[in-house]
Q: What sequence folds into this?
């Protein structure tokens, strides 16, 4: 019979990341078979399994996306043939075409892509991008009527339009033809356009399903160029813009996105576009991996198919013998923000000029403007974030567990950057965030960011009668409303959040692929992991974890980052590795003994290459202390978890220590340190094996260990 000590209340000694860890089920046997057949590390095999790979054929298709046979886009998009015909006729009849884009990176790269390609194909084409400050998102009646007064006969929306029923209806009333290209969620009523291209309207199984707005623009432009027999020389610049926009918009890097982005990342450093070169130069981005095992090496005049008759020519005049490929983070964290900053607080024409000019002088000038505006954007974000945190801590911190959503509205914030601040508040508090600012005394405009269990667009739909314009998707959205409705909006969102969120959802979710020891981390493993690139949405960067790590050194660097040296001792040998924890000032100093979750990064410095860690998660390591430190008192206690009482204790099975947790019904969960498989049952004889990395087991194990840790500190 388990002796039960008095229940203790956990009192953390210092602040740590507020996270819930979800570790993928480990399929060691299948991973080993896949490793042998694919000649890769079992660690990488497990990564593939976590991404839904269930066969050798699927693994090969994932690792070699060029081996996939793609269906023709004309067969997938019902209105694509009609769209091509409308554009072909407009070019032949010299009708004026106008593009209406959006002010984010996806919309601006889409606009630039279609401007370049349509002009190259002989079209008379101009563009307009709504003002974030004065118009808000998407095409509107003012833009439609201006186009009409300028003699425009065909409107082409990019990255917007699917929800713009009234503006498009007005365009049709005026006799204008309209092609909508968009990728946002489908509203209840489609706009009355002549043709609509949206991957959300095609089969979910289609490899084109995940393309962003720039992907739809790319498909349309390539299809038109093929129809006109003018494809040569157009694909390379379009592919560069497609890659830039796709990654910056956080589109899923699966299907054709994975295939085309992988090519684009190799081509970007040697792009012929002055704007791309100027942006790379200004951002200080350098290629991060040499192109290896490529069928056609860079620097040659070889061409290879993109899809059907598409072709790309890698720059044959390159003076660099071993050009390097960019990685998604180079765009996501370096190039993309410089473009997005313009759309947030600057003039989108700067980016359109940057990406459409053939003059390197103009390109460098525009890239310098992007750099300056991005610095302003960073300063704004920092100030607003601090003000928002202070406001939340004063007004909402006590009610947050019951509200399960944050609605933060203050005057004099720049609505161009509040979406970024919303993301940071989600990271900090672990709840969906709706943040807004007053446009005037009577109107509010805002942005929303969600968590995995919360659908932002559905939440906005639930508030339809309280809002003005709104739009978005599962993870993010934008909205406006009369200021008098703010109180009702907060109440409605709290009601919605309480319907779909449980208390355990209110911690940021960190999905972890597999456990790795420091002794296994080397350049060979890193190169194999690179086979999964490009990584991004739906194909995330692999996240590893290592238990019982010692923090050897730590210091604050830069703007609140922690630079560390970590160590793990295995069979008496110590393995060390350097790490960085971005924006973790609030957690400094870190405890001396922890479990860590991280990504691996390559660091090139002074001609030397090392593999380092980017810390994503951390939790107190209680296992080594509890399991292996002799105690003069029985280490047994009880604790509460999800409003139920449990008992737990450290016991020995033979010479091995183990943790046993008993629920009110008498069922016992048993785990031993360093093992991912535990036992669950009423007795050891009838117990079944369970994967203790799964959230339902891992969470209760952590609660038990923390309760035991508090008890142990008293003795």
A:
């Amino acid at each position: 019979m388990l002796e039960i000590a008095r229940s203790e209340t956990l009192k953390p000694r210092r602040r740590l990341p507020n996270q819930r860890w979800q570790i993928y089920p480990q399929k060691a046997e299948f991973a080993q078979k896949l490793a042998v057949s694919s000649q890769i590390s079992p660690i990488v095999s497990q990564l593939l399994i976590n991404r839904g790979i269930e066969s050798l054929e699927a693994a090969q298709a994932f690792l070699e996306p060029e081996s996939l046979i793609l269906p023709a886009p004309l067969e997938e998009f019902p209105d694509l043939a009609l769209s091509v015909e409308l554009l072909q006729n407009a070019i032949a009849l010299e009708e004026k075409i106008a593009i209406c884009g959006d002010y984010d990176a996806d919309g601006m790269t889409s606009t630039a892509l279609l401007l370049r390609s349509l002009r190259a194909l002989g079209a008379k084409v101009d563009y307009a991008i709504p003002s974030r400050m004065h118009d808000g998102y998407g095409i509107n009646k003012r833009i439609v009527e201006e186009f009409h007064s300028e003699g425009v006969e065909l409107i082409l929306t990019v990255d917007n339009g699917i929800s713009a029923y009234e503006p498009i209806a007005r365009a049709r009333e005026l006799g204008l033809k309209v092609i909508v290209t968009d990728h946002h969620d489908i509203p209840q009523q489609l706009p009355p356009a002549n043709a609509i291209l949206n991957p959300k309207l095609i089969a979910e199984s289609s490899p084109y399903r995940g393309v962003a707005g720039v992907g739809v623009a790319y498909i349309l432009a390539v299809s038109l160029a093929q129809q006109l027999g003018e494809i040569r020389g157009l694909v390379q610049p379009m592919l560069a813009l497609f890659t830039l926009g796709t990654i910056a918009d956080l589109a899923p890097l699966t299907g054709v996105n994975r295939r085309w982005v992988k090519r684009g990342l190799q081509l970007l450093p040697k792009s012929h576009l002055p704007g791309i070169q100027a942006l790379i130069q200004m951002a200080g981005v350098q290629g991060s991996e040499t192109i290896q095992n490529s069928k056609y090496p860079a620097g040659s005049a070889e061409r290879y198919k993109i899809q059907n008759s598409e072709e790309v020519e890698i720059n044959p005049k390159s003076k660099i013998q071993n050009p390097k490929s960019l990685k998604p983070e180079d765009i996501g964290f370096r190039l993309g923000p410089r473009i997005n900053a313009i759309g947030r607080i600057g003039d989108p024409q700067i980016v359109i000029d940057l990406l459409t000019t053939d003059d390197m002088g103009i390109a460098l000038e525009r890239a310098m403007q992007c750099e300056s505006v991005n610095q302003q954007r960073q300063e704004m974000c920092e100030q607003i974030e601090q003000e928002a945190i202070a406001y939340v801590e004063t007004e909402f911190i006590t009610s947050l567990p019951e509200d399960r959503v944050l609605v933060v509205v203050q005057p004099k914030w720049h609505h161009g950057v509040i979406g970024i601040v919303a993301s940071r508040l989600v990271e900090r508090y672990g709840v969906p965030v709706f943040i807004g600012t007053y446009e005037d005394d009577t109107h509010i405009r805002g942005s929303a960011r969600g968590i995995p269990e919360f659908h932002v667009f559905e939440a906005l739909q639930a508030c339809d009668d309280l809002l003005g314009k709104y739009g978005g998707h599962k993870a993010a959205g934008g909205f406006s409303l009369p200021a008098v409705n703010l109180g009702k909006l907060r109440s409605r969102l709290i009601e919605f959040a309480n319907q779909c969120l449980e208390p355990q959802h209110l911690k940021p979710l960190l999905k972890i692929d597999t456990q790795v020891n420091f002794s296994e981390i080397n350049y060979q493993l890193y190169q194999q992991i690179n086979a999964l690139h490009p990584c991004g949405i739906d194909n995330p960067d692999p996240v590893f974890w290592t238990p019982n790590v010692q923090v050897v050194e730590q210091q604050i660097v830069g703007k609140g980052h922690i630079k560390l040296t970590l160590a793990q001792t295995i069979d008496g040998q110590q393995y060390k590795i350097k790490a960085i924890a971005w924006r973790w000032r609030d957690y400094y100093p870190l405890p001396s003994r922890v479990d860590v979750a991280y990504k691996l990064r390559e660091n090139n410095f002074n001609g030397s290459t090392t593999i380092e860690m980017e810390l994503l998660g951390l939790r107190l390591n209680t296992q080594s202390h509890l399991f292996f430190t002799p105690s003069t008192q029985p280490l047994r206690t009880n604790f509460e978890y999800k409003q139920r009482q449990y008992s737990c204790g450290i016991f020995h099975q033979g010479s091995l220590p183990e943790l046993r947790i008993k629920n009110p019904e008498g069922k016992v969960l048993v785990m031993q340190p360093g093992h991912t498989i535990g036992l669950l049952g009423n007795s050891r004889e009838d117990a079944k094996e369970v994967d203790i990395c799964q959230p339902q087991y891992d969470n209760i194990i952590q609660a038990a260990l923390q309760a035991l840790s508090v008890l142990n500190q008293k003795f």
User: Anything to note?
Assistant: Confidence is low (pLDDT under 50) at residues 1-13, 288-323.
